[in-house]
Request: fold
Amino acid sequence: MAAKGFLTFPRMENPFRDTSARLQDFGDLHIPLSQAKRQLQASRCMNCGVPFCQSDFGCPLHNLIPEWNQLLEAGQEHAALIRLMKTAPFPEFTGRVCPALCEKACNLADDGVTNRDNELYLIETGFKNGWIRPAAPSRRSGCSVAIVGSGPSGLAAADLLNRLGHTVTVFERADRPGGLLMYGIPNMKLPKDIVMRRIDLMQQSGITFCLNIEASASLCSEFDAVLLCSGARTPRSLHLPNDHLPGVLYAVDFLSEVTRSLLDHQTPPSTVTDSVKGKSVIVVGGGDTGNDCVGTVLRLGAAQVTQLEMMPKPPVSRLPANPWPEWPRTLRTDYGQLESLSVTGHDPRIYETTVKSIHPDKNGVLNAVETVRLKQTDKRFEPFPGTEQRLPCDLLLIAAGFTGCDQATAHAFSLVPDSRGRLAGENGLHYLGGNLFSAGDARTGQSLVVRALADGRACAAAVHDWLSGRKI
Ligand SMILES: Cc1cc2nc3c(=O)[nH]c(=O)nc-3n(C[C@H](O)[C@H](O)[C@H](O)COP(=O)(O)OP(=O)(O)OC[C@H]3O[C@@H](n4cnc5c(N)ncnc54)[C@H](O)[C@@H]3O)c2cc1C
Ligand code: SF4
Reply:
């Protein structure tokens, strides 16, 4: 093994498709590297004595990263994939959407190994070669488990509990499974046929999916155990007059509508394109969801897009208070922002700014917002008087995060969320009492796909222990 490839080969991620081409469609953003180039990238891994990539600073799933990188470098792709899938339930999702905490925790620091792209290469090679087969257990335990919600945490829990022999039924209120993997993360980041490919496999493995169902407490008497994997989908509102005008939308509602229409009709709905094409769009929220909105409205032909962020512009490199191997709180420019730079010549983000008021025209149609600069005093943000600015706005997308768990589910199961809006048991555990458990964003608050997967698996292990009559 070379184990010194990093001295010779520079880090190389899967390149983006050309901006002008990718703005014409909602197809995958990236072009995969060749097998030979991917092997060279794997050879950059040093197989460290202390692999920070798989520590708590790095991968929440504790993926066996150095092991599969070495096998990939040696051309043993099948063996590498088996090591990867020991801990990673759905590498085709994390290989596309994970922010790759492991790469930032890598001992190569800013030059970390391209673990996410290597993972994606392995799983797609596995699918291409027919190595990924349904995983039905050899015998059933006789226990039944209901899972409420088919997002990453629900899917990961369903996968593991099914492998352990329990009979699993997943209940989902939406018309398609996947949670935010389906209706949230845009198609160009995670194509929806990739989500459905996994759901098909899970069905072939013996898991039942019931769609368009609003789960209720009756499940507790019908199943031996019930897992609430219902997400943290209560959006943070602007709490401003006029925030319910037509043209003021929550980001997830907007992104879902675009995806649903792409799937149903292969084209975005005219109701949406009409509200975006040639129009001025303002996105409140400078995070990943806001970036997804920027990329989506540019594909729909927005004339102008501005993204407002409350926080100050992050530094370009790490501050002393944020050393390696912590996640770097530095400036990141994601695909939507890059696309905006390419189309308009400027970064869509305006920092330390929010919307102060929302203004309709004389017909009651949204046509402007007033923004204001913010100054931070202790931990609060205060408006800076005299910095108000009126901006034209035909569509206002609110991507300001989520305040807590799904309220309808909490109500249906007579649960009271904790002070941070989470459905968690005593001491934050998965076990809620009776035969009820929770996992994913519902238990932890809004997070990441990889964390929801890890939490779904941890919850499945707790349920298995409980069903087996052991102490949780
Ligand atoms: C727009 C957007 C983009 C994102 N992009 C990324 C990204 O690129 N990378 C990343 O790592 N993370 C990303 N995230 C975060 C990530 O998607 C979430 O952390 C993750 O999906 C949480 O998984 P979950 O299973 O806990 O919940 P969810 O994915 O929210 O799934 C919960 C499911 O439960 C269903 N449900 C709720 N209550 C009921 C009920 N009573 N009956 C039936 N069904 C019910 C809901 O319909 C939903 O389908 C993004 C989030 C958003 C909003
Ligand atoms: S820390 Fe980086 S170089 Fe070391 S084992 Fe992990 S991926 Fe490889």
